[in-house]
Amino acid sequence: MTIFFASTAPAQRVVDVPTRAGVTQRFLLLQTENAKVAVILFAGGDGGIRIAPDGTIRRSGNFLVRSRNLFAAQGLSVAVIDAPSDRQHTPHLGGFRQTDEHAADVKATIAWLKQALKIPVWLVGTSRGTQSVAYVATQLTPADGGPHGIVLTSTMLDDRRGRPVPDMPLERIKVPVLVAHHAQDGCRFYRYADLPKLTAKLSAVPKTELLTFDGGIDVGDPCEARAYHGFNGIEAEVVEKIAAWIKSN
After folding, report:
1. Cα–Cα distance between 12 and 117 in angstroms, integer?
2. What digits encode the pLDDT tens for the residues 101-125?
3. pTM of this structure
4. 241 in helix, strand or coil?
5. Would you say the C-alpha torsion 77, 80, 235, 201 has a positive or negative sign?
6. Least C-beta-crowded within 10 Å: which of 86, 147, 156, 176?
């Protein structure tokens, strides 16, 4: 395992965790003093955010990535996860999010955080990142090295290139699930009107809740991070409510 310390941000460090044979999983850790919970943040798109050894994130515009310090300000320790070392090229996590290999990489990250921080670990995904989070939760219980809970923001409800979250075996999830969605999300794969396809499948989980948001700033492509889809302009409100729910569970 290699750890690089980011010179511009002493509270941050870049961690490379060994996972599958010859593969490492990199994440940027913001370790918050006295945190009771850690969260792993999963970006949308292809998931390749390109974390450099000094902690620089080359692709930092995603809602969760740009909001990482807001999560830390809410008293959570934060791990921003990249694509693994064998996926540092196009299509990065494209076609990989729902695989045993991806679950193994996330499991190794959870294990490292649990051992290092001695606190529960939650997974938080946005957009296509919700496919990673939901898939891992269907494959791994906490006893098997899985998360203590998950958060799905701007959940992928339809996907012509693969399996959307509602089509997964969500009845296998044995941990609390929080869903956060923007009522004006304009992307056709994430329409608020389609949320019942997801919430109906979550009836078997121990605890679930839907947080609905509106307002903010809608700029550019409705499926991108600066539109309502990415909670643009209301990041602090969204993160505060997500963090409060996590800490209460």
Report:
1. 14
2. 999 999 999 999 999 999 999 999 9
3. 0.95
4. helix
5. negative
6. 86
Distance CA 122, CA 167 (A): 22
Q: How far apart are CA 92 and CA 76, in angstroms?
A: 27
Q: DSSP 3-state assignment of 127?
A: coil
Tokens 């695989």 belong to 99
Please report which helix (H) or strand (E) contains residue 41, including its range.
Answer: strand 38-42
Strand partners, 30: 12, 78
Q: Which residue has the tokens 């850790």?
A: 29
**Residue 63 in tokens:** 């809602």
Query: Is the distance from CB of 107 to CB of 101 less than 8 angstroms?
Result: no
- Residue 185 token pair: 């999300």
CB-based contact 119:92 (threshold 8 Å): no
- The rounded distance, in Å, linking the Cα atoms of 109 and 84 is 11
- Give 158-161 contacts, CB < 8 A, sequence gap 24+: 158/188, 158/189, 158/190, 158/191, 158/194, 159/131, 159/189
Q: Does residue 13 contact residue 6 with C-beta atoms inside 8 Å?
A: yes
161 and 93 in contact (C-beta within 8 Å)?
Answer: no
Residues in the chain predicted with pLDDT less than 50, given as ranges, are 3-10
